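Example (one chain per record):
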Amino acid sequence: MWSNYKEQLLPLSKKKKEPNENNIYQFYIELENKKCDMIMLSVNGHLCEFEFQHNYNSWRSCTPLELFDLPVIKKYTEKNKLTKIQIEKEVKDCDGLIIWTDSDKQGENIGYEIINLCKAVKPNIKVYRAHFLEITNESINNAIHSLKHPQENKSKAIDVLREIDLRIGAVFTRFQTLHFQKRFPQQIKDKVTYGNIQYPIIGFIVNKYLEIGKFEIQKYWKIILYHENDEFHHIQNDFFQVKQCQKYFNIIKESKQYAIVENIIENNIYKSRPTPLNTVELLKLSSKYLNLNSDTTMKIAQQLYVIGLISYPRTDTNSFSSDFDFKKLLISYQSKNIIYSQMAKKNYENNIIKPNNGTKFDYTHTPIYPTSCVTYGALINLPVLELHVYDLIIRHFFACILKDAHAIEKIISVNIGGEKFIIKKFILIKKNFLSVYEKFDDWIIDSETFNKYKIGQKFKPTKIDLIEKQTLPPSLLNEVQLLDLMNEHGIGTKKTYANSMQKVIDNNYAKFKNNKYFIPTKLGLGIVQAYKTINLTNFKTPKLQKDINKYIIYICQGIKTPEQVLK
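Predicted structure:
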């Protein structure tokens, strides 16, 4: 909020406030070619919530089905009462309002909650919208000098989404809780909650669990020729008929011949450097390599963002714009930080190739990247988990602007007794991006040289074995696989991925086994099977949420009105 300039303030000062109120910062700035006094205060997420009228709060006041049509109200919450009063008090002396919330639909909706509150006190107040990508001086200065107007359609879309979530959640939570408590009074004591996002997640977890239960183990056999430490596999690889495998094995054993190297093929293999980092990829990498669940990772990333070390961590974007200044960032790392200076120098001296851009760009945020360089002392003083996540983010940033890794795939074919065996080896030529990213990649390289075999060479096998194996069932769903499914089917958003998975656990629909795999509880299995029995399988599949998301986009684009979508 700002008012016309009255007196010179310190560059930044705290304004006196009441106990339990949010901090208020004051400073002066030139805006619209005038000096202005600026007052900045914060809100903690949404100020308002949707609810049914008070007389329908009792579960016995109406049937669950009636909740689809009963009126809902949007009201300021009791927990935000002090913030509401604080904003109303401060806006009285202000001439303008600038919204600095996140530049996405949820941020726009929170912004309009503030706008409506301020306009109720001061109807003619000027309103502007600041768009910024990270908490840096440059980004903030750019935002204050390129103010825009808020986008009401985005806010209306979120209002519709919140109302739909309330209605569907309330209807089915009441319906299934009352039903199950009546049928299983001893087992079901708490609410059996329903959510548009958590139910497809439960469906994914249950489907994988049932798939494992249906899996039929099969035996198969392999013939392996050993020479020193090398394993050559029969060209057919796996035999599912033991008699056929035994036949080939006997022929080879009885021939008592030397193996002859018939062919050597060399193929250039390139391991692609990663695309710029977005939220889904950050969560997947953190789960796989740091053993951190999504909820923990997002809390850490948010803290790194707040203290100005990384850009905004909730983003779909995996593509840098053409004017992104890589050189400026790399130079700062060379000069200030001994841990990452060599990585930065390697990138800079290699003339910085274009990043391996992905296909996603949400027009509101950059990919996640390190925004500022910190000294060695400041870096080692970070909490351990924050240091690990920061290390992942900075190495990922360096990796996406280095060249692809290069290796040679060498395929060696040998013949013994008329039967062919092969061995494959991967020989590293140049690490390139892997020189900074090896700890976050699984590319398996055998050795730097493998020249022990020549065409026409004969050798006596160390031994030849017939080995019995069996097929393995698929593993339980892990966090990386679940994130892929959610992303593929449009379940949740960059802001809700972590929270949605945690809710499934908190509501006793699934457990997180060994901090690695999701396994459904009896309640989770029972819910999915119950809806399947009454032919309402859409409630455990992504289709319902995908349909809702489609109409939310239509509102943002002005194709549909909120009233049309709610009908």
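Caption: Confidence is low (pLDDT under 50) at residues 5-11.
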